[in-house]
Write a structure and sequence with these properties.
- By secondary structure, the chain is of the alpha+beta class.
- The protein folds into two domains: 35 residues, no CATH class; 77 residues, no CATH class.
- The longest helix has 15 residues.
- The radius of gyration is 24 Å and the shape is globular.
- The relative contact order is 0.12.
- About 6% of the residues have low confidence.
Length: 141
C-alpha cells in the first residue's frame, strides 16, 4: 500500500492507496472541495468549509467566506455520496461568480436550494393608519 501526501489549497491531504488510479480518484475528490483558493464574490482568501444537518437529518456541505456573506455549495452523488461543486441552479442556469453566491439572496428566492439556510418568516408590521388633517387656515403676516 502506498501513501500519498499532497497540499490542496490550504489543506494537506494524506491517503493510503493500492494504486495510482485509486490515489488519483481520492486526490480529485479532495481537490474538488479544498481546491477553492478564494471567495468568488469578494476575492478574500478567508474561506472555510462548513457542514450543516437539518431537522430531517439531511447533510449540507459548503465553503463560506469569512469576509462577506458568500457561500459555495456542494451537491452529493446518490451513489457513494461524493461531493461535487454546484455551479448551476436547479434550472440549469449558471450561477454567477463561478458558483459563489450571497446566501441571503438564495434564501429570499423561491427556488429551494438548501432548507437548512431558510430563516423563519419575518413578522409583518402593523398597518399604519393615515389620518386626514384638517386644512390649515392661512394667517396673514
Amino acid at each position: 500500500m502506498d501513501k500519498v501526501r499532497i497540499q490542496i489549497g490550504k489543506v494537506w491531504i494524506e491517503c493510503e492507496c493500492e494504486s495510482v488510479k485509486e490515489s488519483m480518484a481520492k486526490i480529485t475528490e479532495y481537490s474538488t472541495v479544498y481546491g477553492q483558493k478564494a471567495c468568488g464574490m469578494c476575492g478574500s482568501e478567508n474561506i472555510y468549509p462548513e457542514h450543516r444537518t437539518d431537522a430531517e437529518g439531511n447533510n449540507y456541505y459548503s465553503m463560506r467566506c469569512g469576509d462577506c456573506p458568500a457561500q459555495f455549495s456542494f451537491g452529493q452523488t446518490k451513489a457513494g455520496g461524493v461531493l461535487f461543486p454546484r455551479r448551476e441552479d436547479p434550472n440549469g442556469n449558471k450561477i454567477p461568480n463561478n458558483g459563489w453566491y450571497d446566501w441571503r439572496e438564495r434564501v429570499a428566492s423561491k427556488e429551494r436550494y438548501d432548507t437548512s439556510l431558510q430563516q423563519p418568516p419575518q413578522q409583518q408590521q402593523p398597518e399604519q393608519r393615515q389620518y386626514e388633517q384638517p386644512p390649515r387656515e392661512s394667517t396673514p403676516f
